[in-house]
Amino acid sequence: MKELVPQPPAIVRNDVIEIQSLFQQNVVPSYGRFDLVLSHGSGSQIWDITGKRYLDFGGGIAVTALGHAPPAITEALIEQSRKLVHVSNFYYHAPQGRLAQALVSLIGPGKCFFANSGAEANEGLFKLARKFGHDEGRFEVITALNSFHGRTLAAIAATGQEKIKKGFEPAVPGFRHVPYNDLAAMHAAISPATAAILIEGIQGEGGVTPATPEYLLGLRQLCDEKKLLLLMDGVQCGHFRTGRFQSYQRILEGVPGGDKFIPDGISMAKSLGGGFPIGAFWVRQPYADLLSAGTHGTTYGGSPLGCAVALKILEVIHREKLADNARQTGAFFKAGLEQLAQKYPGVIQTVRGVGMMLAIELAPNISAFAGEGKTAAVRFTNLLHAAGLLAIPTATQIVRFLPALNLHRGEVEEGLKIIESVTASLAG
Ligand SMILES: *Cc1c(COP(=O)(O)O)cnc(C)c1O
Questions:
Q1: pLDDT, tens digit, 9 for 90 and up, residues 136-178
Q2: Are residues 281 and 423 in the same domain?
Q3: Bridge partners (DSSP) listed for residue 283
């Protein structure tokens, strides 16, 4: 039988140039992409279309919680898609109710709203803050310098980095930024219009900078005194990446009064769906009904398919004790990186982070990187790629490792060898 529709031309193996030219001609060039065309993965390994294998220590920027092509996600997708892929939020369905229940039990008394991304989850928190302050004419949200909260108009207004706002003025009003981990600066910034404070428990794009316990406890007290909502962006640092469900739980471990700390709202995404796009925010009980019927919504948020995947990920994390793995394998990895920093102080200046959210800060004047062009972070990352390891650069000097929560020790050992080979080659 004659084909009615012509077959698209086959993508020939090794045809890196052809795929890149499809992007150049047809995809908006809003990303600076690496020269890699990826094909398939398994766990923490990924292959490009030329057949070269890499260890993936970038995890899709803290997304692929269970690694690539995890059978549990495949099964959840197949099983749920045979029943229901989507229904409108005009109706009830079991997966959304169960996922909300699971998140509430991991955080504390409150309720959840489901969105499709981190920026959208934060948008929900901004609307919550405005609703909360509305009757008193309060609307302002104070955030931290070097923060990152997403790429929508309100999220770039919330983000404390000029480069992300540039060219998109006028900014959505009602956001101001103060230095991170500086309680006095936050105190001084509060105005009669302030309704909420939003911070990341560990700044991710800012360079893997954890909040100090004193900062978290101090912000809680400040928000109670001034009747402000304390909102936390857990999109990157949440979902067991630190060894606890939320980063503040890890940061405040063993700190007097730490077990009583709880924010008023938390945004989630990234590892929540392990690669399936889903976001969420949790809001603490006294404020859980502020967003009443008709005030907020999204077509796809909390779909049966997305919630079934998120539930499966939580089940696997629990069954395979991946929070403990993130903590222990992360500590092993960090110790290895610290040894490299000691051995090659001219290349690696500091090591930061906790669990599976780690970073190295490169020394400022690595001679091999002299001259203009790309940042040291990008150039170091390119060398890692060539040596067979994926990582995520940020700022100008920082290279992040945000691997799958089920990364194992053997993979860390292999990864450390690759990182050492690149570091040693720059030390000369
Ligand atoms: C990635 C990220 C976001 C934005 O999430 P998207 O899903 O890309 O919209 C927001 N906040 C933090 C801390 C992030 O790391």
A1: 999 999 999 999 999 999 999 999 999 999 999 999 999 999 9
A2: no
A3: 111, 265
Instruction: State in Å: Cα 339 to ligand 1 middle.
Output: 31
C-beta separation of 56 from 390 below 8 A: yes
**Residue-wise burial string across 2-19, b where 16 or more C-beta atoms lie within 10 A, e elsewhere:** eeeeeeeeeeeeeeeeee
- Among protein residues, the one whose CA lies closest to atom 15 of ligand 1: 236
Tens digit of pLDDT for each residue in 316-351? 999 999 999 999 999 999 999 999 999 999 999 999
Q: Could you tell me the pLDDT band of residue 372, with boundaries at 50, 70 and 90?
A: confident
Whether residue 355 sits in one domain with residue 271: no
Candidate of 61, 232, 236 to mutate for ligand 1, largest count of ligand atoms within 8 Å of Cβ: 236
Residues facing 352 on adjacent strands: 359
**Could you list the residue range(s) of the whole structural domain that residue 376 is in?**
10-26+35-69+323-427
pLDDT at 428: 75
Name the residue of 30, 143, 267, 270 to mutate for ligand 1: max ligand atoms within 8 A of Cβ. Answer: 270
**333 and 417: one domain?**
yes
Task: State which amino acid sits at residue 108.
Answer: G
Ligand 1 nearest-atom number relative to CA 151: 9
pLDDT reading at 129 higher than 80: yes
Among residues 136, 174, 138, the alpha carbon closest in space to that of 154 is found at 174
- Dihedral in degrees, nearest 10, Cα atoms 340, 343, 344, 348: 40
Ligand 1 first shell, C-beta below 6 A: 117-119, 122, 148-150, 200, 204-205, 233, 235-236, 269-270
What average pLDDT does the structure give for the chain? 96
Would 225 be classed as within a structural domain?
yes
CA of 151 to the centre of ligand 1 (A): 8
Reply yes or no on whether the pLDDT at 256 is more than 50: yes
Q: Which atom of ligand 1 is nearest to the CA of 205?
A: 15
Q: For residue 346, which amino acid is it? A: G
